[in-house]
Amino acid sequence: MSVAQYAYLNTRVSLYAAQLLGMDRLDALIDRPYDEDTQAAAQPTDAIQYAGDLDQSNVTLLLKELAVLIRPLSGAPRELLGYWAHRFELGNLKTIIRGKMADQPQAAIEAQLQDMGAFTSLPIAGLLQSDTPAELLRRLEQTPYAEIARQARHLLEQGEALFALDAALDRRYFAGLARRGATVGGASGQLLRAIVGSIVDRVNLVWLLRYRYAYNLPPAQAYYLLIPASHRLLPQQLQQLAQCASFDDAIASLPPPFDRILADARNTTEVTLKLERETWRYAANALRHSSFNVARALAYMVLRERDLRRLRAIVRGRNMHMESAMIRTALGLVKNGQEAH
Asked: Which of 71, 88, 136, 164 has the fewest Cβ atoms surrounding its Cβ within 10 A?
C-alpha cells in the first residue's frame, strides 16, 4: 500500500477515534436524570440515537465506518478487516440454519436477519429457498464460507445436534481470524496478533469454562470444541485446565498472566468482562502508540463496537428505569470514570 493510502487510513482512523466514548461521557449518560430523556429526544444524544432497532443500528454503523476504512486497503490487511465483518453475517447463517431445522416459514427467518449492506457475501435468497439444512449447506459450499459449510455438513450427516453445528461455525470463524491476522507482517502484524490473540484467548477460555462447568461436558470433548489456535494461553495449558474438577479449581490453576487478571472471577460473565478489557487495552495501545498501519483500523473497530454495546446496555437499562449502579454493574464499571477490576 502506498504512503498516500496509509496517510488516508491514518487520518480516517484518527478522525473516527475522536468519537470514542471516554468514561466521563459514559458517566454522564448513565447518571442523566430520567426527565432529561424526553427533552433529549428533540435533540438526539448518543444514547437516544440508538433507541430503535439497536442490534441492526449497531451493525449498520460499524459496517458503514468499516467500509470507509477498508477503502484504501488491499491484500492481507483488506482480507483481515473484511473477514472481521463476517461474524455478523455468521449470525445470519446460524439464524437460517436454525430456522430450516425448525421448519420456520421463509418470511419468519428473513425477518430475523441483519442487513449486511455492501459486506453481504451469503446468497441469502438461495439459502432461504433450500428445502433442507443439508441442501442449504451444499449451496453454502459455493461461497466464501465453503470451509465452514463442509465442516457443518459433516456434523449434520453424523446426526449432531444444533449445538455442535453452532460450535463448529464459531470455531472455524475464529480460526480463520487468527490465520488472517498471522499473514500481516511487520510491526503492524505484531499489533494485530496481540489484538486478535487476546480475542482467541478469551473465547477459548470462556468456552472451556462454559463447556466443562455449565454444560458438564467431559474434558476431551470440551477441549475439542475450542478454537485450533492460541496466543498466550497455549494448547497444553487448556488441556490441563479442562481436567480441573470445578470452575474454582480451573481459575486457581490458570497460568500467568491469567491468574492475576482473573484472580477474583466468580463466573464466566466476569471472566468475559475481564478478558474483554485485555482486548480493549491492546486495542487502545495500538490506537495511541502507532500510526500508518492496519492495526489501528482494527483497534478502532474493536473499541467502537465496545462503545456501541455499552450504549445499547445504557439505553435498555434506562428504558427499564434501572438504577445507575445496576447499569454500571452490568457494564463492569464503577462510578467516576473507572472500570471495575
From this structure: 71
Range of the domain at 111: 73-183
Would you say residue 139 lies in a domain? yes
Domain for residue 77, yes or no?
Answer: yes
- The x, y and z cell numbers of residue 27, run together, are 458517566
My answer on whether omega of the bond before 33 falls inside 30° of 0, hence cis, is no
Tally of structural domains, the chain: 1
**Would you give per-residue pLDDT tens digits along the chain (341 residues)?**
566 777 889 899 999 999 999 999 999 999 988 765 544 443 334 333 333 344 788 899 999 999 999 999 999 999 999 999 988 888 898 899 889 888 899 999 999 998 999 999 889 999 999 888 788 888 888 887 787 778 777 777 776 667 777 888 899 899 999 999 999 888 788 999 999 999 999 999 999 999 999 999 999 999 999 999 999 999 999 999 999 999 999 999 999 999 999 999 999 999 999 999 999 999 999 999 888 789 999 999 999 999 999 988 888 888 888 899 989 988 888 776 566 65
pTM metric for this prediction: 0.88
Locate cell 493510502: which residue?
5
Burial class from Cβ neighbours inside 10 Å (0-12, 13-18, 19+) for residue 141 reads middle
DSSP per-residue string spanning 215-277: S---HHHHHHTS-S--SSS-HHHHHHHHT-SSHHHHHHTPPTTHHHHTTT--SHHHHHHHHHH
> Does residue 312 lie within any of the structural domains?
no
Q: Is residue 128 part of a domain?
A: yes
Residues 6+ apart with CB under 8 A from 304: 16, 20, 61, 62, 65
Helices (H), 105-161: 106-110, 124-128, 133-140, 146-157
How many angstroms separate the Cα of 292 from the Cα of each of 55, 180, 230, 288? 31, 19, 27, 12
